[in-house]
Automatic annotation (TrEMBL):
The lineage of its organism: Eukaryota, Viridiplantae, Streptophyta, Embryophyta, Tracheophyta. GO terms for biological process: methylation. It catalyses: N(6),N(6)-dimethyl-L-lysyl-[protein] + S-adenosyl-L-methionine = N(6),N(6),N(6)-trimethyl-L-lysyl-[protein] + S-adenosyl-L-homocysteine + H(+). It comes from Leersia perrieri. Protein-lysine methyltransferase that efficiently catalyzes three successive methylations on 'Lys-36' in eukaryotic translation elongation factor 1 alpha (EEF1A1 or EEF1A2). The keyword Ribosomal protein does not apply. This is EEF1A lysine methyltransferase 4. Belongs to the methyltransferase superfamily. GO terms for molecular function: methyltransferase activity. Keywords: Methyltransferase, Phosphoprotein, S-adenosyl-L-methionine, Transferase.
């Protein structure tokens, strides 16, 4: 297994780069290297169905998702339940009522049902194609206890305090694919993220929990999660090999100065760690695209020269 690690540090904190890092950062890519890189950023498992978009901004187009879900049977963004079960299972009980936002064609709802959740599982997606196909799948399996609804995550059609647990897995990341500077996202991105979070906060019960599974690092997400209108505490863990996926736990009504002060110390700038096996996954498009990666490498070159 080959690991490529690229880290960019602030002034005064740049560690001496290894020989391998210097070679990787300064070597000009040949045409074969560029072809290899494009191959790594193309999800091999999805090439046959041609469902991956040409550009990351296509993820913001509802028609893209309808077309994709018309072809694709199943895809798990940011790993399946088995990879984060140890983090999610302690938060649920048989009486837990669950809302999954942006379910797509994931099987998380069915996994939670098998885990013993009997308080009601509702899965929503903006795409009526995805919703109908999931309904058909559940009916064919004879699965009961999972309701699938067409709904916009920016305008959830549920009463206040309806759910004990709300889960999103890669859904919020869609809002960031065309956000501009990650340190200063464009106003439309900020507005949409806040609408999503406000809706989730509204439908959670007084001591409900919101779980966000994402690539978004704490120094990018906390500014949204810790907005003054929200009463939840913010905690996080990571899971995964190569890539570190972030697993945020936001507990409504539990916010305090202590809960914020006790968070882990985070780096002031992001890092990218890549295993070749992980790069075959479409999840990587949410982390960066080819052009953004080139800019990142160029920035790192300036840091280590």
């Amino acid at each position: 297994m080959v690991l490529v690690a690229c880290r960019c540090h602030g002034p005064g904190s740049t560690p001496p780069p290894s020989l391998l890092q210097r070679q990787l950062l300064h070597k000009q890519p040949t045409s074969s290297h560029r072809r290899r890189r494009r191959h790594l950023l193309t999800p091999a498992s999805m090439a046959d169905e041609d469902v991956a978009p040409r550009t990351a901004s296509a993820y913001l187009d509802p028609s893209y998702w309808d077309e994709r879900f018309g072809k694709e049977e199943h895809y798990e963004w940011f790993k399946d339940f088995s990879h984060f079960r140890h983090l999610l299972a302690p938060l649920i009980s048989p009486s837990t009522s669950v809302l999954e936002v942006g379910c797509g064609n994931s099987r998380l709802g069915e996994e939670l049902l098998r885990e013993g959740v009997a308080g009601g599982i509702t899965c929503v997606d903006l795409s009526p194609v995805a919703v109908q196909r999931m309904r058909d799948r559940l009916a064919e399996q004879g699965t009961e206890g999972v309701e699938v609804v067409v709904a916009d995550m920016l305008d959830l059609p549920f009463e206040r305090e309806s759910f004990d647990l709300v889960v999103e897995k890669g859904t919020m990341d869609v809002l960031f694919v065309d956000s501009g500077d990650p340190w200063n996202p464009n106003p439309d991105t900020v507005d949409n993220v806040m609408k999503m979070l406000e809706g989730i906060h509204k439908v959670l019960k007084p001591e409900g929990i919101f779980v966000s599974i994402t690539f978004g690092q704490p120094h990018f997400r906390r500014r949204f999660f810790e907005a003054p209108e929200f009463t939840w505490s913010v905690e996080w863990s990571t899971f995964g090999d190569g890539f570190h996926y972030f697993f945020y736990i936001l507990k409504k009504g539990k916010r305090s100065l202590d809960s914020i002060a006790d968070q882990h110390t985070q780096p002031t700038t992001p890092s990218i760690n890549m295993f070749h096996e992980e790069l075959e996954s479409e999840d990587y498009i949410f982390r960066t695209n080819v052009d953004e990666f080139s800019k990142f490498v160029n920035q790192c070159c300036k840091c280590v020269v």
